[in-house]
């Protein structure tokens, strides 16, 4: 997966959203805004992309997205429950149709036996109630590669919700 691949994927998401009049927000932890960056790298993206939330800390997830402390305490920041709460929170805090959220362990440190380096949880939510979750275990393939693959996965999920052909 190259930068050209990500640019092509981002352009396709924007075109699908534009064709359906959909707007997008991102809620990112381990990717630190790279999904929003991939989308906004494309000229004219402002008619689709409304905002991005970079919520690296638990406190930011709570303050900016309304992720309940109980979810973070019970399941941890890197969990299906947190990713889904982040996606729902982005919808609650932005006037958009679609939101995608990412939380994971990019490495090189921070992993454990239960939650290894390369574990990433994704959630994409639509204003109409649709919600997709995906868990990826990329492995200890390097921080940059985990982040790059995470951006690609998030774009694919947005494409699904926007009515694209990406595999669900």
By secondary-structure content and strand pairing, the structural class works out as alpha/beta
Assign an overall shape. globular
Helical content (DSSP H or I, runs of 4+): 40-55%
Number of helices: 6
Low-confidence stretches: none
Order of helices and strands: HEHEHHHEEEH
Q: N-to-C terminal Cα separation, in Å?
A: 19 Å
- For the largest beta sheet, what order do the strands appear in spatially? 2-1-3-4-5
Number of strands: 5
Average pLDDT rating: 95
Q: Give Rg in angstroms.
A: 15 Å
- Please describe the biggest sheet, giving its number of strands, its sense, and whether it closes into a barrel: 5 strands, mixed
**Amount of beta strand:** 15-25%
């Amino acid at each position: 997966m190259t930068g050209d691949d990500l640019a092509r994927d981002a352009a396709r998401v924007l075109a699908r959203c534009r064709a359906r009049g959909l707007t997008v927000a991102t809620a990112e932890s381990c990717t630190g805004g790279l999904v929003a960056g991939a989308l906004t790298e494309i000229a004219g993206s402002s008619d689709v992309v409304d905002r991005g939330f970079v919520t690296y800390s638990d406190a930011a997830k709570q303050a900016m997205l309304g992720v309940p402390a109980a979810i973070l305490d019970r399941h941890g920041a890197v969990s299906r429950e947190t990713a889904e709460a982040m996606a729902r929170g982005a919808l609650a805090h932005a006037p958009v149709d679609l939101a995608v959220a990412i939380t994971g362990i990019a490495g090189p440190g921070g992993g454990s036996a239960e939650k290894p380096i390369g574990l990433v949880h994704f959630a994409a939510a639509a204003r109409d109630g649709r919600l997709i979750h995906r868990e990826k275990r990329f492995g200890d393939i390097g921080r940059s590669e985990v982040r790059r693959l995470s951006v690609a996965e998030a774009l694919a999920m947005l494409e699904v919700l926007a009515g694209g052909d990406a595999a669900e």
